[in-house]
């Protein structure tokens, strides 16, 4: 999807960095303004992760819980 910018120059189409998890996460964090929407996305991704690999998700959840417990509020 390319168009023309204000100055008449060709505009490059933006690409979502699907193969770059860190960049994709930062993009979504910036673009999703409502906390309810952000956490709904996390819930949905958790459900999909269960379908993909329950053991990996459980390991990741344990890691998050440990990080959270050691982090001051």
How would you describe this protein?
This protein has 3 helices and 2 strands, in the order ββααα. The protein is elongated. The chain is mainly alpha-helical and 73 residues long. Helix 2 crosses helix 3. A hairpin with a 5-residue loop joins strand 1 and strand 2. The protein has a two-stranded antiparallel sheet with strand order 1-2. The relative contact order is 0.06.
- The percent range for strand residues is 5-15%
- Helix-strand topology string: EEHHH
Mean pLDDT: 89
Assign a percent range to the helix content: 55-70%
Q: What is the CA–CA distance across the termini?
A: 43 Å
- Major sheet: order of its strands? 1-2
Profile the largest sheet.
2 strands, antiparallel
Instruction: Determine the number of helices (DSSP H or I, runs of at least 4 residues).
Output: 3
**Derived structural class:** mainly alpha
Radius of gyration: 18 Å
Poorly predicted runs of 5 or more residues = none
How many strand units? 2
Question: What sort of overall outline do the alpha carbons produce when their principal axes are compared?
Answer: elongated
Keywords:
3 helices; 5% strand; two-stranded antiparallel sheet; 73 residues; mainly alpha
In short:
By secondary structure, the protein is mainly alpha-helical.
List the helices and strands and how they pair.
Elements: E1 3-4, E2 10-11, H1 21-31, H2 35-52, H3 54-69
Antiparallel strand pairs: 1-2
């Amino acid at each position: 999807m390319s168009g023309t910018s204000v100055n008449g120059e060709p505009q490059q189409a933006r690409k979502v960095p699907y193969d770059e998890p860190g960049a994709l996460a930062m993009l979504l964090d910036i673009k999703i303004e409502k906390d309810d929407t952000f956490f709904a996305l996390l819930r949905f991704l958790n459900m999909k992760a269960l379908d993909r690999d329950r053991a990996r998700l459980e390991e990741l959840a344990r890691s998050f819980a440990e990080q959270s417990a050691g982090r001051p509020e």
